[in-house]
Amino acid sequence: MPDAWATSRRRAQPRARRYLDGYLRTVRLVDLLAVSLAVTVAQLLRFGFEERALQSQFGAVNYLSVSVVLVLAWMVSLQVLDAYDGRLVGHGVQEYRQTLRATTWLFAVVAIAALALKLDFARGYVLVAFPLGTVLLLLGRYGARRWLVTQRRRGRLSDRVLLVGDRDHVASLVVALGRTPDAGYNVLGACVDNAGSGQVAGVPVLGPESDVLVRAMELEVDVVAVSSSAGLGQTGLRRLGWALEGSDVDLVVAPGIMDVAGPRVLTRPVQGLPLIHVEAPDFAGPHLVAKNVLDRVMAVLMLLVLSPVLLAVAVAIRLEDGGPVLFRQQRVGREGRAFGMWKFRSMVCDAESQLPRLMSLNDATGPLFKLRADPRVTRTGAFIRKFSLDELPQLLNVLRGEMSLVGPRPPLPREVAEYEASTRRRLLVKPGMTGLWQISGRSDLSWDEAVRLDLYYVENWTPVLDVMILWRTAQVVLRPEHNGAY
Question: What stretches pass through the bilayer (predicted)?
């Protein structure tokens, strides 16, 4: 590594990254209001406006003082467990996970302290304060995140990033980071050896890899992201880390593995060498049993709650042309087993027979067939497709165990016949009524992108991911102009 790096390191001045300071201060204030409200409601519900005291072996303590201490302890717990780490905000589940961890640890400490010090906590007070506080904290974080995501999609409040690596890996990083603006990475340029042109995937090449430190200081970047292909070597990467010390620039190393979620990755240092363990996907076990049970319970509840909507849609379809209300289509499920998938009929009765003459007008890519202005769609069908109401009868498939609430898109047999070997991994789990494909653009997605999202879900499924997808699905359905349904 050139000695100029050491010289640049001596000249580098620490530059505090403060663009998130105001946002994080607001998040702290929202959290403070959330836990204060939860504790206040718990005290009023349990004791009303009368003064009550907590009995202990050291004497009585007024519950108002207990509430103040609990609020302060909650805020300290959030701070200590990195709930305000700016690197975690805006994207992924880690921000929510840290908030839950902080609350869980505080609850555990309170329980242990109550047992050890013989504190006679009112159960009603505790059982209201902690669940309510947790819900309010998560809702507050969600609201703050929506604002931050909006800003980042406009190009604001994002890390300024400089990439390092060979041409192909840098191009992959540019595409991956550009795909998720919520994560807050704004790529300014790349240092690439033998680039062959002035740009890589639309990002300007600023010089060879050996110029990375100089370019990072010139551009005042926040992050230097080094791909696994970079020619810096172990010594060069270590010296780059030393050179960035005190400059407030994060060094991020992107491994050569793609589309693997955090829960499957374990980093274990051995003699200074960080070994990355990648666990195999889990397609069985207690989590899968719990998912199957929850699917069926939720399907029953949704059928009961949505029964007026189901009845109204059925009547509207029947009144329009007198044809059948439901449409049953052959689809392929887990391990290649075929099943009949139910939908509300959104097309004319002879839609299947008209398909051959429309194939040449296909707007989709790959094995998919989609038409933005399909002449077979009825007026009622256009409306129920816009709000995804045509999918609701699939709750019957969920009850029968043929589908899940969340999973890959259910494919047609003719699509499966064209699958490559890697694409067939979509069939390792049950197809879903919704999934990453639906909340990411649905029919507007290219075939390759739809496959990538489905395979990501198959490889990285977790209960938390399912909850997030269901939550996002509700938002997407209520904003039909952005859901890609047609």
Answer: 27-49, 61-81, 102-119, 125-144, 297-319
d(CA 275, CA 261): 16
Q: Are 200 and 170 in contact (CB under 8 A)?
A: yes
Q: How confident is the model at residue 455 (pLDDT cuts 50, 70, 90)?
A: confident
What DSSP designation does 281 have?
Answer: P
CA distances from 163 to 71, 91, 188, 237 (A): 42, 20, 8, 13
Q: Which of 74, 85, 82, 6 is nearest to 38 (CA)?
A: 74
Q: What is residue 366's DSSP assignment? A: T
The alpha helices in 306-442, defined as continuous H runs, are 307-321, 351-358, 379-386, 394-399, 413-416, 436-439
Who's near 481: CB < 8 A, 6+ residues apart?
A: none
CB-based contact 390:346 (threshold 8 Å) = yes
Helix (H) or strand (E) holding 225: strand 223-227
Span 158-256 CATH architecture: 3-Layer(aba) Sandwich (3.40)
Contacts of 224 (CB under 8 A, 6+ apart): 161, 162, 164, 212, 216, 240, 244, 249, 250, 251, 252
Return d(Cα 142, Cα 242) in angstroms, integer: 37
Confidence band of 149 (pLDDT split at 50, 70, 90): very high
CA distance linking residue 133 with residue 136, whole number of Å: 5
Mean pLDDT in residue range 464-486: 76
In this predicted structure, what is the pLDDT of residue 395?
Answer: 96
Average pLDDT taken over every residue of the chain: 84
SS3 state at 20: coil
Amino acid at 353: S
How many whole angstroms separate alpha carbon 248 and alpha carbon 231? Answer: 24
Which residue type, as a one-letter code, is found at position 423? Answer: T
State how far the Cα of 358 lies from the Cα of 376, in Å rounded to an integer.
Answer: 10
Q: Are 380 and 317 in contact (CB under 8 A)?
A: yes
Angle subtended by helix axes 307-321 and 286-305, to nearest 10: 60
Domain boundaries, the chain: 21-153, 158-256, 286-482
* 182/146 Cα distance (integer angstroms): 9
DSSP lists the bridge partners of residue 56 as: 59
- Cβ-count burial of 48 within 10 angstroms (0-12 exposed, 13-18 middle, 19+ buried)? exposed
Residues contacting residue 312 through CB under 8 Å, at least 6 positions apart? none
Q: How confident is the model at residue 4 (pLDDT cuts 50, 70, 90)?
A: very low
CA 256 to CA 19: how far, in whole Å? 30
Tokens linked to 365: 């890519």
The CA distance from 1 to 336, in Å, is 54
